[in-house]
Amino acid sequence: MRQNWLKKVIGVGLSAVLCMSALTGCGGGGADASSGNGEDSTQAPAEQESQAAQGGELTIGVTSFADTLEPTEQYFSWVVSRYGVGECLVRFDESGEMVPCLAEKWTNSEDGLTWTFTIRQGVQFSNGNDMTPEMVKASLERTVQMSDRVPEFFDLDKMEVDGQDLIFYLKRPNGNMAGSLADPLFLIVDTSVDDSAFAMEGPICTGPYAVESFNPTDECVVVRNEHYWDGEVPLDKVTLKCIDDQTTRSMALQTDEIQIAYNLKTENLVEFEGNDAYHIQELQSLRSTYAFMNQNGVLEDIKLRQAFLRGLDKETYCGTLLEGGATVGKAPVPPTLDFGFDQLKDENGYDPDGAKKLLEEGGYKDSDGDGFVEMPDGSPLELNFVIYTSREELKVYAEAAQASLKEIGLNVKLDTVSYETLLDKRDSGDYDLLIWNVLVANTGDPENYLRENWYSTSGVNTTGYNNPKVDKLLDELAATFEEDARKDLVMQIQQLIMDDAATVFFGYETTYLFSSTQVTGVHMYPMDYYWLTKDIGLAQ
């Protein structure tokens, strides 16, 4: 049931992967529907790629480095997965469909309280130790113990091993346990070694690569896992180089300092289009850029939040400033997923005159003539907007919002920090607004994303947002398996969040992947947990 639902959603919502260079040798594995050159644009990826050579080294330009490789810290398990080191029991394929990985298969009880995963035999960790069901259980117990994010995925009662089966007994129903276990938080590590070394030396996992060295401010170097269970690994070594500046990352690809560049944007297309030395892949993203509004401070006032939202010219931000590289945001879930985006009503679209009226009604006036309104009690009103800029679009949104809101009298100060500092500020509640960019279907549909960010008791929800109706619907969603019923619940939850003016939804960015034609086997995944895979190699 869950696999069919996910496949339908991805198939309807996501654009085809495009190769913007010549179709021959297209590493994207997709068609350029607008090429009009008469060539066969329906080739399978294997037919479009050169044979990979065995051996060699590669450098990939990345953003938002982790300050630790401990996978239970914050969201840094994503780095361990993206860098080809960690694997989970379940994974998502290029269509966004759940497929077996370290588990060969799984079943569940009708009530969603008992899930059984058959652990794959013949798998070894990168140190040569055998991966047994008991070791998988120990790894997941470690995650449950060390991460406060686990309850947002499932509420575990206990686990038992029965032969090759690992059985999960849950306290609350979960209609998507397999999707939950596909999140990199639940990647499997060898707990028989000294795990205190994981932070700086990398965890011992089962992926195609193992960490050789790690410098949190510069690079992570990984080498071939000689014990990998799922086929040959072409490359000897890969360097993941942190290049936060978008222009510098683009130049590094053009000068062959790197051979793959992640998180380049629409404005970079002109630098590579028409050059058959590069592949460009494009995907209508499952990511959303939004800003939390902290209701524990001055934004407790819904009129102020509504005015803030109505002061944002998101059409200009997405269409002009980002050169059409994003769809205008309004709701938690983007239109690339079939959860009623067009049916949801946005009462707080761009309306600067309406925003000014709301401020006046709320008692916010510019008494000193400086162009900015004060609080109803006459004290200064200054909104602290915390951002990070390793994703260029975040800076664009924030600076544009600051300018737009000045026009309606709101004084917004930008606090630009590292991604790691931003996480600390989020967790401590030290912000009025805080930028966020996240995959909205990290378990295959939006359930976990919605629970993690807007459930009243979620450890991630530091905004003070609390709507009992949202909590009730999220609990109902967890116990619901039928597709149409799940869609209806997700739509109801989204509408409540929008009506509460709880969050600023800026836009849903188009994702690009740029790579040299020297590199084969490079694919985009809608669930962007997989950057360096066993398929990537150098052309012969």
Alpha-carbon distance between the two ends: 42 Å
Question: Strand-residue fraction?
Answer: 15-25%
Q: How many helices in DSSP terms?
A: 16
**Principal-axis shape:** globular
Gyration radius, in Å: 23 Å
- Average per-residue pLDDT, rounded, comes to 89
Low-confidence stretches: 1-48
Total DSSP E strands: 21
**Based on helices, strands and strand pairing, what is the structural class?**
alpha+beta
* Helical residue percent band: 25-40%
Largest sheet: 12 strands, mixed
SSE diagram, text form:
Layout: H1 2-13, H2 45-48, E1 52-53, E2 57-62, H3 77-82, E3 90-92, E4 98-100, E5 103-108, E6 114-119, H4 133-146, E7 156-162, E8 165-170, H5 177-180, H6 198-201, E9 209-215, E10 219-224, E11 237-242, H7 246-254, E12 260-262, H8 269-272, E13 278-284, E14 287-293, H9 302-310, H10 314-321, E15 326-328, H11 352-361, E16 383-387, H12 392-407, E17 412-416, H13 419-428, E18 433-439, H14 447-454, H15 468-478, H16 483-499, E19 503-516, E20 519-520, E21 537-539
Parallel strand pairs: 2-11, 2-12, 16-17, 16-18
Antiparallel strand pairs: 1-21, 3-4, 5-6, 6-8, 7-8, 9-10, 10-11, 12-19, 13-19, 14-18, 14-19, 15-19, 20-21
